Amino acid sequence: MEIKPKNRIVTQNLFRSFEVGGNVVNALNDISIEIPEKKLAILKGKSGSGKTTLINLLGALDMPTSGHIFFDGNDLTKMNEGERELLRRKEIGFVFQSVSLIPMMSAYENVEFALRLAGIEDKRHERIVEALKMVGLGNRMEHMPAEMSGGEQQRVAIARAIAHRPKVLFADEPTAELDTQTALAVVKLFKELVEKEDVTIVMTTHDMGLMSAGDVVFELNDGVLVV
Questions:
Q1: Would you say residue 3 has pLDDT above 70?
Q2: What sign does the dihedral 209-165-140-150 (CA atoms) show?
Q3: Of 107, 126, 163, 167, which is least surrounded by CB within 10 A?
Q4: Using an 8 Å Cβ cutoff, are 87 and 79 in contact?
Q5: Residue 63: helix, strand or coil by DSSP?
Q6: Taking Cα atoms as reference points, which of 130, 119, 127, 110 lies closest to residue 91?
Q7: Distances from the Cα of 5 to the Cαs of 34, 120, 127, 208, 225, in angstroms?
C-alpha cells in the first residue's frame, strides 16, 4: 500500500481582499490546497495572478480576509502576532526576488546574522559552514556580496534562509533576475535541499521552463486556482 506524504500546509476556502481607491479588489478567491512535507511545491501564474499574495499568507506575513491556513495542523488564523512571529523565526525561511543581503557583511556574516536573529547559539559556526557548502559556496564564505555574481548572491540568500533548519522555505520568484542556466541551477539546488534537509519548499514562478521541477504544481489565474 502506498503511504501518502503528510501535509505540511493546508488551506481551506482562503480569500484575500484589498481596498484600493474605495473599491474592493479580490486578490484570492476560495483557495483550498494541500502542500505535502519534504516536497518542492510550485505556485505558477502570470504577474498579478495572486502568487505573492498567497505565499505571504502561507508564510504568516499576512492574514486572510477569510478562510483557514494550517501549518502542521495549527491554524495560523487563530494565532496572535507574537505567535506568528515566533513561527516565522523558528520554522520558516524566506528567499525573495531581491536577495537583500547586507552589503557590508561577507557571505559567512550574512548567514551568521540570520542565526543570531533566530536565537541559535549551539554549533553556529559549524552550521554556517555546512549551509554555505550545501549551496556550493564553501570557497566563497569570506567574499562580500559586491564580489559575487547574481547567482552566487542568491545562493547566499538560500544558505541564510535554511541555516536555522526551517520546516518550510518560501521562495518568491527567486529566479526572476537570473539567466536561464543559473535559474535551473537554483531549482536543482532546491531539489537537493528537499532531500538533504527534509525541508518543504514553496516557490512562485512565471517561468514555464521551471514548472516540471515541482513535485506538486498549483496554478493561479486572477486569484482563482486553476484545476
A1: no
A2: positive
A3: 126
A4: yes
A5: coil
A6: 119
A7: 11, 29, 28, 26, 22
Query: Sign of the CA dihedral 94, 9, 44, 155?
Result: positive
DSSP 148: S
131's grid cell? 549551509
Reduced to 3 states (helix: H, G, I; strand: E, B; else coil), residue 166 is: coil
- CA distance linking residue 194 with residue 5, whole number of Å: 13
Identify which of 148, 141, 181, 144 has the alpha carbon closest to the alpha carbon of residue 163: 141
What is the rounded CA–CA span in Å between residue 121 and residue 221? 44
Q: What average pLDDT does the segment 192-208 reach? A: 90
What's the pLDDT tens digit per position in 59-87? 999 999 999 999 999 999 999 999 999 99
Given the C-alpha cell 505567535, which residue does it identify? 83
Query: How far is the C-alpha of 39 from the C-alpha of 6, rounded, in Å?
Result: 10
Domain range annotation of the chain: 7-226
Q: How many CB atoms lie under 10 A from the CB of residue 19?
A: 8
Q: One-letter amino acid identity for 171?
A: A
Query: What are the residue ranges of helices labelled H in 1-46?
Result: none
Please measure the distance between the N-terminal and C-terminal CA atoms of the chain and give it in whole angstroms: 27
- Single-letter amino acid, residue 79: M
CATH assignment, 7-226: 3.40.50.300
Cell numbers found for residue 64? 486572510
* From 18-27, 28-37, 158-167, the region with the lowest mean pLDDT: 18-27
